[in-house]
Amino acid sequence: MQILELTSSYFPAVIALANQIHGDNYLDNASLTLMQQQGVKQGINASFIALDDMDNVVGYRLSFAAGQWQADNWCTEQLWPVPLAQMAYFKSVGVCPSQRGKGIASQLLKTSVAALQQQGAKAGLAHIWRESPGNAAERYFSYAGARLIKIHPDRWRHLSETVGYICPRCGELCRCSAAEMALLFSPNE
C-alpha cells in the first residue's frame, strides 16, 4: 500500500469510492475540488489517498486546515480543547470494504495529522457517523485517541433535504446521528 497526497488526477476514483461508501451524491467534482483546497495551507496538503499494489484507490482521507473551514450548528466550540483558529477538521474518510481491517484508515489519519501539525493545527475535529456498521467509525476514532464532545441527532438530514444526499442506511431522508469528537495532537506525532 502507498499513501499519496490527494490531487485532482485521483478525484474520479475518490468520488466513486465515497459515493459507494457514504451514499449517492455525497461527493461530486465541485465539492471535492473545494474540499481538497481547504486542506492545503502553506503549500502543505492534508488530504491523502491510499493505493493498492495495482495503483487502485482503496482509501481516502479529506482533512481541512485550521482556519480554512467554518464551524456550524453541529460544532460545540465551548467544549473543544483548542480554539477554532487552531482546530483542523477531519471531513471524510473511506476505505474499500474489501480492504478494511488492514490499517489503511489509521495510516491515512496518521499521515493527515502530521500534515495538519506542520500547518500549525493543535487538534482536529470530526463528526463521526454513529450508524456505521457496528459503529466502527466511532470505535476507530476513539481508538486513535479522540474524545467525545457531543452527540448530534439528524446530523445529515439537511443534506438529504437540500442537495439530494441519499444515505446508504436511511435512504432519501437521512436520520443518522453524529458523534462530535476532537483529537488533540501531541507534539511528537
TrEMBL record:
Domain of life according to the entry: Bacteria
Domain N-acetyltransferase: 1-170
Pfam families: Acetyltransf_1
Protein's UniProt name: GNAT family N-acetyltransferase
Source organism (scientific name): Rheinheimera maricola
